[in-house]
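It is worth pausing here to work through a concrete case rather than discussing structure prediction in the abstract. The textbook approach is simple: state the sequence, then state the predicted structure, then interpret. We follow exactly that order.
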Amino acid sequence: MKILQISDIAYPHIGGIERTVYKYGKEFVRNGHESYVLTSSFEKTRKIENIENTVYHRVPKYILPFFSMSLKDFDIIHSHSYLSFYSLNLYKKIYRKKIIFKHIHSIYGKNLRAYTGWNISKILSIFEESLIKGECDAYIVPSNFTKNTIKNFGIDKDIYVVNHGPEYDSFPDKKEARKILGIKDEEFIIGFVGRMSYGKGPQDIIKIIPEILKYNRNVRLLLIGPNPTLKTSGIMGIREHLEKRVKEMGIENNVEFLGFVEDEKMPYYYSSMDVFVMPSRNEGFGISIVNAMSAGVPVIAYDNTAIPETVGDGGILIPTGDTEKIKEWVLKIMENEEIRKMYSEKAIKRSREFDWGKNVKKLIEIYSSYL
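Step two, the predicted structure:
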């Protein structure tokens, strides 16, 4: 098969969707198919680039919805791009036999205002639904939560759940990771990986640090992830606000904003953590959670959207917004080695249920059933 993926942003920019596009392309080639990606161009990116035998075509973001490539040459069009959905609706009406899949990674809906802080979220939610409901052959989603949400839109087409996997093939042991990163053995590391945005919830972890420090002065919170902008992610970041808050609280020495971290270093950061906290308000799957579990790090996460599906029995789920519960569980893991070990083992066991190779083979079987 000749497969085209469309994504608003792709490699070398790395996020959950971008990683999925990259992993899919790699697995398509491994299974004997031709793999292409149409995406937006950014500074210092090439117009055409071959990355592990997947050909990336990059065009200015403002013309991505109108496609500078001919789509007729492809057997399968798999779009992760909301920007492309409207033109794909028109394209499908003209070329009825062309096979088009829409990949819905996450649906914000009524949660959009809580996630972004925008006052016009209700209007954007209606627009989101209309784009999703447009013409295509079927939908790919990463979780049953997302599948059920789409069903509530009144969609009667097939919706297939295809899970993601960990972003990294292996993780070093904790001692090696800390040695490489210069983290002392006696430090208790609380980790967070995600955009510096309200919806991802870093502010909830910062809130509990002064209380945690009453029990252990060797605690450090590592906040890993970029500060989003309207241009890169469609939302405004809150890093500046968080840094100001940290200074006001007098915890500058215990909270580190690492920003974007090179991909090759990320397994070391995950392995260095004693506990991983994901206080997100909305996740279509939660790849960073799977990464942490794969590294054997105990996970604490909010009990909302698709997060319970991903965490399963491999971590600790608490009510959304309950920072007191976050504090309680961080202290339990910090003070009780047996609890920490138990949740580390649970995390590793759960992570083994997510595998890119297996899931992409499932996706290829889905494609084949439409040809």
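Step three, interpretation. The chain has two domains: 2-165+355-368, 174-351. The radius of gyration is 21 Å.
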